[in-house]
Amino acid sequence: MSLLMTLRIALKALNRNKLRTILTMLGMIIGVGAVITMVALGKGAQSTIEEQVKAGGTNLINVNAGNFSQGGVRQGQGMSQTLTADDAEALRAVPGVQYVSANANSRGQIIAGNQNWSSQVQGVDTDFPMIRNWNTKYGSFFGPQHVQGAARVCVLGNTVAETLFGPDVDPTGQVIRIRNQPFQVIGVMNTKGVSGFGSDQDDVIFTPFTTVQKKLQGQQHINGITVSAVTSDTEPVAEAIREALRTRHKLFPSDPDDFMVRTQEEMAAIRTETTRTMTTLLAAIAGVSLIVGGIGIMNIMLVSVTERTREIGLRMAIGARGKDVLLQFLVEAVTISLFGGLLGIALGYGLSAAAERFLTWPTAIPPNAIGLAFGCAAGTGVFFGFYPARKASNLDPIEALRFE
Q1: DSSP state letters, 273-288
Q2: How far apart, in whole angstroms, are the C-alpha atoms of residue 52 and residue 192?
């Protein structure tokens, strides 16, 4: 019997019990749809992380002051006073380093006219816009003369600018007060959006780091250093930075680092790995419904074998071989799985689109996920359909004809 003829017989047999066939497919439809949706949500999250990493800066390396303990309590990253502006300047000579910015951070109440806003004040150097690939919307960023003179000038993030002066207003030249000290606004940064950690990157004010040190904090140390490497291979550069700082800080080989060096890839890898683990877990949970669907197919095929025992006996009596009967029932099981898989893929696309549109969750369906889902559907049909098909092929024709 040809495969085409076997397929026609299988479709005819399935068509005789439409409702039962549809209900049998339902487990496969839900299983494949759930797997596709979970993978789409996971891949969408990974893509978002990658985009946020790219938006965070060009070949970024962060150097933070190390931990220190006070009264037995660890104060956390960036709280010690081990980094200085001279350290940042020295890193410019490290091979592979392109841009360097010393960072001195503060926070305060911002007042402009009758408006006020509490925001983060980041003291940075002139290289900061190149490191973060962040241009100004209005005005310009401050220059070396502002850093050297610890000038009271600032560049506003878009959220701060809109809050204090209203949307689409150029506040360049206006004077605001930070901790009751007057600062002249010389520019507004373009919109950067939400960071990978969920914070608003535009809710910030940039000033020269020397201004934060001398006018706002009264400190000599800096909180960290942001570095941009020449190439995307930042690990060798990060190691060179580490060695340079250990030499400057006169640390012995047995001494631990009093600073922390982190590349953008390291930070992204941790978050991506977490997302990948969750995606795998959710896909595995969704895959359980594929097994349930397969068990449903096996159950219905066993019922079908029992119902069609006389038909099987008649076919074998007129010359059908055992392998023909085996193939027929196997094709029926695979047909149910494949049709269910196709409808499940469509359901997965629909659920992914709905999640992106109504829940604003990013989704991305990789092409290999479609092939994997289709292959799983076919494999499920073969695996769970083989036992009923073999049982049908092993029936004794005489006993089958006598079956009531």
Answers
A1: HHHHHHHHHHHHHHHH
A2: 10
Cβ atoms of 48 and 362 closer than 8 Å: yes
Query: Angle at CA 311, nearest 5°, toward 310 and 313?
Result: 60
Sign for the CA dihedral angle at 166, 170, 174, 180 comes to: positive
Which residues 6+ apart lie within 8 Å of 41 measured at CB?
279, 282, 352, 355, 361, 363
Q: How confident is the prediction for the chain on average, in pLDDT?
A: 84
Closest to 344 (Cα-Cα) out of 39, 23, 33, 37: 33
Q: How many helices (H) and strands (E) does the chain have?
A: 13, 12
* Tokens (6 digits) for 313: 């006996």
Instruction: Give pTM, 2 decimals.
Output: 0.59
Contact 68, 80 (CB under 8 A): yes
> First and final CA of the chain: distance in angstroms?
27
Cα separation, 98 vs 237, whole angstroms: 10
- Give 334-391 pLDDT, tens digit per residue: 888 888 888 988 998 999 999 888 887 788 888 877 887 778 888 888 888 888 888 8
> Locate tokens 């092939």: which residue?
371
Q: Hey, CA dihedral for 233, 238, 239, 240, is it positive or negative?
A: positive
H/E run at residue 28? helix 18-56
Closest CA relative to residue 332, chosen from 404, 280, 281, 384: 384
Which of the pair, 232 or 29, is modelled with greater confidence? 29
Closest among 225, 259, 241 to 104, alpha carbons compared? 225
Tens of pLDDT, residues 120-145: 999 999 999 999 889 999 999 999 99
DSSP symbol at 213: I
Residue 286: both structure tokens together = 């969704």
Structure tokens at 221: 């140390």
Q: Does the pLDDT value for residue 215 go beyond 50?
A: yes
The residues, ordered by sequence, that sit 6+ positions from 328 with a Cβ below 8 Å of its Cβ are 1, 6, 9, 10, 389, 392
Identify each DSSP E strand in 132-258 by its residue range: 136-139, 153-156, 175-178, 181-189, 204-208, 224-229
